[in-house]
Amino acid sequence: MTQQTTLSPRAWTEMTLLALIWGGSFLAIRTALDEIGPLTSVLHRTFWAMILLWAVVALRRLPLPRDPRIWGSFLMMGLLNNAIPFTLMAWGQLHISTGLTSIFNAATAIFGVLVAALVFADERLTPRRALGVTLGFAGVACAIGLDSLAQFDIRSLAQLAILAGALSYACAGAWARRHLRGQPPLVAAAGMLTGSTLLIAPTALWTEGIPTLDLAPRTIAAIAYYAAISTALAYLLYYRVLAMAGSGNLMLVTLMIPPVAILLGTWVRGEALQTGAYAGFALLALGLLVLDGRILRRAAPEPSRRV
Fold first, then answer.
1. C-alpha closest to that of 264 among 13, 30, 18, 15
2. 3 occurs within a structural domain
3. CA nearest 165: which of 83, 95, 92, 88?
4. Cβ–Cβ contacts within 10 Å for residue 194, how many?
């Protein structure tokens, strides 16, 4: 795993801002789903974010790839990183709370370790990583709850759908590492959103009809938020934070998102989570911290130094 760099106050500030933005996206998506269908909500998200990011690419005059294989990779990234997880999670949010959705979404990092271990020779599953993964999955099982595990219903299916979306995110990370190295991040993000828009549009139009903007103001505001801010702007902020903090420290953002989503769901929609969900998040967070490695380094005694 990438070695962590010391975080500056500016890096902490932007990481916190990114967590707040992504944490708010769960509430915005659930708000839009009160009036529009899951596929339409995803189409709004990818289409408007695509337009905004291509505008940024044009303003910065970034070069576009000419190799058709790169555009094919963008299409696959759009499928794995947007079309599949956005759709599964949007549908899942119709049946479970925003806070619980954000907890299951945090399992992306756990799945990411397993996928990387299967795909890349330099990402083997060390004892520390195995412990982190075990704790993470224990947290997921605890958050799902014994009732859902014993009696399968629509809520159980929704939870599995969101976990499948998290697995798709993890597969997208492996795909990007193998096929998109060397591509400017903004071009890759815009190309990915183009691919996902092309993939989701036919299905959304066929099943839910032509999207309309004749919507309630709160729905339009929700769409604007999750498309422009939590997708387009968040990608720009993500790459800034990545450059400042490094990929290892970005795992901390994963831990900061669920509390934001849980609080917003409670304040705005009156949602309440069961005790098991909080216990599950605590286990999942512990697993992520073990994967991160820094708590184990801090617990270990400092090596003696010669004078």
1. 30
2. no
3. 88
4. 20
Q: Nearest to residue 96, comparing CAs of 25, 33, 154?
A: 154
For residue 303, is it within any domain? no
Per 3-state DSSP, the chain is made up of helix, strand and coil in percentages (nearest 5) of 75, 0, 25
- How many domains are contained in the chain? 1
Residue 280 structural domain: 9-295
Residue spans of alpha helices (H) in 209-250: 217-224, 234-245
Distance CA 75, CA 117 (A): 24
pLDDT at res. 306: 37
Q: What is the pTM of this model?
A: 0.89
CB atoms within 10 A of CB 207: 11
User: Each residue of 113-159: pLDDT tens digit?
Assistant: 899 889 888 888 888 889 989 998 899 988 887 666 567 788 889 99
Whether residue 206 has pLDDT greater than 60: yes
Residue 236 lies in a domain: yes
**3 state DSSP class of 61:** coil
Q: In the predicted model, what is the mean pLDDT of the chain?
A: 88
Residue 279 domain-assigned (yes or no): yes
3-state secondary structure of 250: coil
